[in-house]
Amino acid sequence: MKHGNASLQRVGMFGGAFDPPHWAHRALAETALKQLRLDALHILPTGHAWHKTRVLSPAADRVAMCHLAFDDLARVKIDEREIHREGPSYTADTLRELAREYPGAQLFLVLGADQLLAFRTWVRWQEVLDLATLAVANRATNIGADAPLDQAVETDLSRVDLPFERLDMPLKNISATDVRARLGQAAQSTAALEVLVPEAVAGYISTHHLYQNPS
Ligand code: ATP
Description:
6 strands, Rossmann fold, binds adenosine-5'-triphosphate, 15% strand, 6-stranded parallel β-sheet, 215 residues
């Protein structure tokens, strides 16, 4: 496998709170696997995300929902290492570990446009760029609880002064914030939820009574 360029492994890393994983995450994973011709895609639910202030749902729930959302995709691994890491977790550290685990592999960091715009605020972002190719899916400019699902305006990435590859994925105006807000507002039928999250994730959310007090 590791002899010559043609057989170099292509490995993706896709991190997120996944609180909960939704259809846009799933589309992003599928697009990355296909377009980047990945041999493996590590999906990493974050531990203590240094850049998010909201208290996340328990890691066990987010990991369980990631299994439900992604396990049927070939070559995907739900990777719990950031959850088990002591202290704040940084993408640069995870990429270093993956580089050791897949010697000589080409690494890709899969992310949405909002994260690309914030990329220079990341801890050791230059190191991230040295280790991986950024693979970016566009995302609507207005994201969050109030964003209408049907009107999405693409984020303008033309002035981003960083090397990155675009993932060609139809714009999906879904955010986990919006999913949580809807769940907190009123009793939602599982069918209504399935517009936003995969069916098995919707079932898990209602069985475990998650997101009844959104924040
Ligand atoms: P929250 O609303 O809680 O901030 P989120 O929906 O942004 O959550 P995360 O788990 O923080 O979800 O996102 C993980 C990754 O998926 C990030 O790189 C983010 O940019 C990307 N992503 C999430 N939703 C979309 C979307 N609708 N389109 C493109 N990328 C997305």
